[in-house]
Amino acid sequence: MPHPKRTVLVTGGMGGLGETISTKMADDGYQVAVTYSPGNTKHSQWVTEMKGRGYDFVAVECDVADIDSCARAVAEVESKLGPIDVLVNNAGITRDMTFKKMDKVNWDAVLRTNLDSLFNMTKQVADGMTERGWGRIINVSSVNGSKGAFGQTNYSAAKAGVHGFTKALALEVARKNVTVNTISPGYIGTKMVTAIPKDILDSKILPQIPLGRLGKPEEVAGLIIYLASEEAAFVTGANIAINGGQHMQ
Ligand code: CAA
């Protein structure tokens, strides 16, 4: 179904999953803005490359772990594209290590970037969505938030927290036609996953995936496009797994 031209903001929109979400949503007719992290020195090159491929993205610097940075980033996007209709909280990091080796710095980094970010970003757009009576908030969690993962006490805790946030906020904004959902991808072929030592990936992870392969970023983007659509208006507070059968709830 064609939709009115909506604006989407994808955090971490230049990353492994984020770039595919951004391009697929642009293909679907959205105006797309992306955030990139302050350390990203390749952002102008990325924007230029994307222009070459026919994509006109607004890209803004944003540390999703810092609420003031989020406020500045959203203000900049809104000044260029107008109100944000769809927020995809996609930015995330890993700092994998066994709990024995984990220190507070690596615990905090993951909790702040993967969980505090939901408060920091959503705070900037939720009131506008409820006032306009339409909005979509899509939070990217992980299979490892549902089932746990060896070496990921920090990441699994943050990703489990994502869905608690989703459910509570979904209740609060439902009457204003704002939906809030979680998606929980499994192991997708992005650099976050290909950074896992190959022997661990081959011996411990791939054998757990009934489909016998990594997921494709396009498959995740397709789910996000569905959740952002008019047809998904009745889906809220859900946690949709997309993991090749690795974990069934
Ligand atoms: N399950 C069971 N045992 C495991 C295991 C696993 N997934 N991973 C490692 N082990 C075992 C090893 O086989 C090894 O056993 P032995 O001592 O008997 O040989 C022991 O644990 C220690 O393993 P390492 O030598 O690898 O220990 P390390 O400290 O060097 O590394 C680690 C530990 C960093 C956790 C490393 O194993 C690792 O990177 N694992 C992958 C973690 C993972 O799955 N991350 C997901 C990233 S992708 C993502 O997060 C996206 C998403 O949302 C899905």
Could you give a quick summary of the protein structure above?
The protein has 249 residues and is an alpha/beta fold. It has 9 helices and 7 strands; from the N terminus they run βαβαβαβαβααβαααβ. It has one domain: NAD(P)-binding Rossmann-like Domain (Rossmann fold).
The beta-strand count equals: 7
Low-confidence stretches: none
Instruction: State the helix count.
Output: 9
**CATH superfamily membership:** NAD(P)-binding Rossmann-like Domain
Q: How large a portion of the residues is in β-strands, by DSSP E?
A: 5-15%
Largest sheet: 7 strands, parallel
Domain count: the total is 1
Q: Which CATH C-level class is it?
A: Alpha Beta
Distance between termini?
31 Å
Q: How confident overall, as mean pLDDT? A: 96
Cα gyration radius (Å): 17 Å
Which molecules are bound in this entry?
A: acetoacetyl-coenzyme A
Note down, in words, how this protein is organized.
- The mean pLDDT is 96.
- The protein has 249 residues and is of the alpha/beta class.
- Strands 3-2-1-4-5-6-7 form a 7-stranded parallel sheet, sandwiched between helices.
- It has helices at residues 16-27, 43-52, 67-81, 104-132, 143-147, 153-173, 191-194, 198-205, 217-228; strands at 7-10, 31-36, 58-61, 86-89, 135-140, 178-185, 239-242.
- Helix content is 47%, strand content 14%.
- It has a single domain, classed as 3-Layer(aba) Sandwich (Rossmann fold).
- Bound molecules: acetoacetyl-coenzyme A.
- Acetoacetyl-coenzyme A is lined by residues 94, 96-98, 142-144, 149-152, 155, 186-187, 192-193, 196-197, 200, 204-205.
- Residues 94, 96-98, 142-144, 149-152, 155, 186-187, 192-193, 196-197, 200, 204-205 line the site of acetoacetyl-coenzyme A.
